[in-house]
Specification:
Number of helices: 4
Structural class: mainly alpha
Shape: elongated
Helix content: 55-70%
Radius of gyration: 25 Å
Number of domains: 2
C-alpha cells in the first residue's frame, strides 16, 4: 500500500511539472514570436512606417524597442515563475533532467533575444557612426560631424590623434 501511494504521488508530481511547462510554453509563445526575426531591418521598417504617421523614425524605433524590452522583462519573470512552479511540484527535491534542460534552454533563448534586440537597436541608431572595422597595423578615422561631436571623444589608452584628425590606436588600420 505504501509503494502504491508513493507512485501515485510521483505520477501527480510529474503531471504537475508537465502542466507547468505546458502553461509556460503557451505564455512564452508570443514573446518568442515577437523576438524571433528581430534585426536592424525590422527597426528600419518601423522607422519608415513611423514617417507616415507623424512621429520621428528614432522615436518609433525607441517605442518599439521599449515595447520589446517590456516583453523581455515579462518573459524573464515567467521563466522565474516556471522555475518556482517546478520546484514546488517536485516538493523541493532536485528537478528532473528534462525540466532543468527546458529551463536552461528557455533562459538561453531569452538571453539570445535580448542580445539580438540590443544589437539591432545599436546598429540601427549608431551604424552611421562606425567608420571602419579595424585590424592590427592601421589607422581608425572617425567621421567629421557638423557639431564637432568627436572633438571631446575619449581617446583609448595607447592611441594618439594626428594633426589630420585621425586616431592611431596601437597599429590598427581600417579594413577596406
Amino acid at each position: 500500500m505504501r509503494h502504491h501511494r508513493r507512485s501515485e504521488r510521483d505520477a501527480r508530481r510529474c503531471c504537475t511539472e508537465h502542466v507547468a511547462l505546458d502553461a509556460f510554453d503557451a505564455a512564452a509563445a508570443p514573446w518568442r514570436e515577437a523576438l524571433k526575426d528581430l534585426d536592424e531591418d525590422v527597426l528600419a521598417e518601423a522607422a519608415a512606417e513611423a514617417r507616415a504617421f507623424g512621429p520621428g523614425p528614432a522615436a518609433a524605433v525607441d517605442e518599439l524597442g521599449r515595447g520589446l524590452l517590456g516583453q523581455l522583462a515579462d518573459w524573464q519573470q515567467t521563466i522565474g515563475e516556471l522555475g518556482r512552479a517546478l520546484t514546488t511540484a517536485t516538493e523541493r527535491r532536485p528537478l528532473p533532467g528534462w525540466s532543468t534542460d527546458a529551463g536552461r534552454t528557455e533562459d538561453i533563448g531569452w538571453r539570445q533575444a535580448r542580445t539580438t534586440l540590443l544589437e539591432a537597436v545599436a546598429h540601427h541608431h549608431h551604424a552611421h557612426l562606425l567608420p571602419a572595422i579595424v585590424e592590427p597595423g592601421g589607422e581608425l578615422e572617425l567621421p567629421a560631424t557638423r557639431n564637432g561631436r568627436f572633438r571631446g571623444a575619449v581617446i583609448p589608452e595607447g592611441c594618439a590623434v594626428s594633426d589630420a584628425g585621425r586616431r592611431r590606436c596601437g597599429g590598427r588600420r581600417p579594413v577596406r
